[in-house]
């Protein structure tokens, strides 16, 4: 595969003609996914028809993510060209009171682009649509009309996705825009039933979020990944019960993340207990634990990844656990003794490939008398997260801290080759 990778990278970087062997689509897709992580695939669309057919699904599986503002209207226009006559008429009719620029005639596009949609973030969708509305509007457009127009376009797009996006597997509920019309869409239940991943991230908790979650609890049975990170005030007893219902209704949960529950988390862990044979990743952040919850966590003996960050109530009883498959561990101890970190690493250090700390844990790993990383001979990666209670950490602070961490680890473990990186909002944020 390295041979083919070198050829593809060479072709993307040099405009010269290169004769490529024909690869099976499955292999081609895997190679292009690798290339996509390091460079843009847009230029490879023009290589030939076969390349184009393999690149387009990758570019359109989550087109809203990190889309430059200047390209927003192009993306939306392409989707709107995929509307059927009924959807196009409805869009034109609803927008006509506000602007008269909708002269798009549905036509056959080169690809059925909505078919490739695999993940959609409500926040990204609203951002791209709002940017498009600004592009359409002139100076005479009233400011209060713009959110209305955005809602019209979003509603029509969801009609399109409901009809065509049979590969949609992941939804991120991270914005509170109105969804009543979405709930009433034909086949919207079917669209949700095919999901494998659900994230609910720091969005105002309203009926616009509760309604889709109610539908998911009734119609989704095959969610593999659940991720709830809201502000602590949103975790009412009713919402905790809804989370528990969603968990119970699934056949096979392999990844679960929960954050910011100040009390009342026991029903969630009780529901999660039924997935102890399938759960491979558990991330718990800023959550008040109880002894019953810890006893349940100790039974998840299939875990590959465990994150316990800033959890109140975490006691030494967590050491009753048995995680023989554990490979990735992230611990931070604002609220509990660092002895737990030490004991955890003494028990599982030899099996770990990756370990993570918060920047406040520097003294734990930097003590000459307690070379904690020496207990982890097989780790290749060390991640440092940056969270400070009631404080904002700027880029310079993070950069300086990372220099300090790297220097200290080089000093203590000069023969080790570790990839040390920060977990921040640009890569992966546990805390938002």
From TrEMBL:
Residues 21-65 form the F-box domain. It holds the Pfam family F-box-like. InterPro entries: F-box-like_dom_sf, F-box_dom, LRR_dom_sf. It comes from the Eukaryota. Signal peptide: none annotated. This is F-box domain-containing protein. It comes from Rhizophagus clarus. The lineage of its organism: Eukaryota, Fungi, Fungi incertae sedis, Mucoromycota, Glomeromycotina.
